[in-house]
Design goal:
Layout: H1 3-15, E1 19-21, H2 24-33, E2 37-39, E3 42-44, H3 47-59, E4 93-99, E5 112-115, H4 116-120, E6 126-130, H5 133-137, H6 146-149, E7 154-158, H7 167-176, E8 181-184, H8 189-196, E9 201-204, H9 209-219, H10 222-226, H11 229-237, H12 244-255
Parallel strand pairs: 6-7, 6-8, 8-9
Antiparallel strand pairs: 1-3, 2-3, 4-5, 4-7
Helix pairs in contact: 1-3, 8-11, 8-12
Length: 268
């Protein structure tokens, strides 16, 4: 019995409908298990059918109802697949790279996944908030980043993405912490806007602007600029003059191109 059939039977028991549309699952359970009776383009049900459904689930090793809230895979009900509606394995975890933390060392180019509370307890002095995962794993290659770290023990934090390492969990760490933040985003309007919104932002992490301009011209990524400029422009135009984001925005407007973090120059 597959997940769709189990879900159908549970909903049947819970709601006790007088009829359901004649779909593929209803047809299968009608023909294979004798649940329901066809009337026109629908399948009608009686109390007998609800009892048969309940007994069928029990006989196949399933509970007649499922936990309301998702649970870790290790806590799913007997008979259930650990993948059915359970919490994702990375639930509550953040992806981080420790940079010069006393007593915390990992192989270069790798990351650590940990509970957000464990990450908050690490002895870092500055948080590097990273938009993309690959550049975070290669932070050791960006030699100009040392000018922003200033020798301080740091923790690089992946912003998160759909499907893994949720953005709201990373934001929870960001908002609960009190230490200064280095914003490490793509050089595009959306990235600058997100950087400008960072709480406790100490700096925007970009290569020196002359080196950045050379790299931008080499890659010719006009789509990175055009893709978010209309949405981000009002926020960026309202920034106080003279700040690092304001200067980066001025360069970007002049070039009308952006640059992804993966193509930032390594040495400057």
């Amino acid at each position: 019995m597959n997940q769709q059939q189990v879900t159908f039977l549970r909903r049947l028991i819970e709601t006790e409908p007088s009829s359901r549309p004649f779909g593929a699952t209803a047809e299968y359970l009608l023909n294979a298990e004798g649940i329901g009776k066809v009337q026109g383009r629908r399948v009608v049900y009686t109390q007998r059918d609800f009892e048969v459904a309940r007994n069928l689930l029990k006989a196949r090793g399933f509970e007649s109802s499922r936990q309301v809230e998702p649970v870790p895979r290790s806590q799913v009900q007997p008979g259930e697949s650990e993948k059915w509606g359970s919490l994702r394995v990375s639930e509550g975890l953040v992806a981080v790279v420790p940079l010069g933390l006393p007593g915390v060392q990992i192989p270069t180019g790798s990351m650590v996944c940990m509970d957000v509370r464990q990450a908050l307890a690490l002895p870092f002095e500055v948080l590097v908030f990273c938009e993309n995962l690959e550049p975070m794993l290669r932070l050791h290659e960006y030699q100009w980043l040392a000018g922003f770290l200033k020798g301080r023990p740091a923790l690089a934090l992946f912003r998160g993405a759909p499907g893994y390492f949720r953005t709201d969990v990373a934001n929870e760490l960001l908002m609960q912490d009190h230490r200064p933040v280095l914003a490490f985003f793509d050089f595009d309007p959306k990235g600058l806007s997100m950087a400008a919104s960072m709480p406790r932002r100490e700096a925007l992490c970009l290569p020196p602007l002359d080196s950045l301009e050379v790299a931008v011209r080499a890659q010719r990524r006009k789509t990175l600029y055009l893709g978010s400029v209309e949405v981000s422009r009002p926020h960026l135009e309202a920034l106080p003059a003279g700040g690092d984001v304001w200067l980066a925005w001025g360069l970007m407007k002049r070039l009308e191109m952006g640059l992804d973090q993966e193509h930032f120059p390594r040495a400057c």
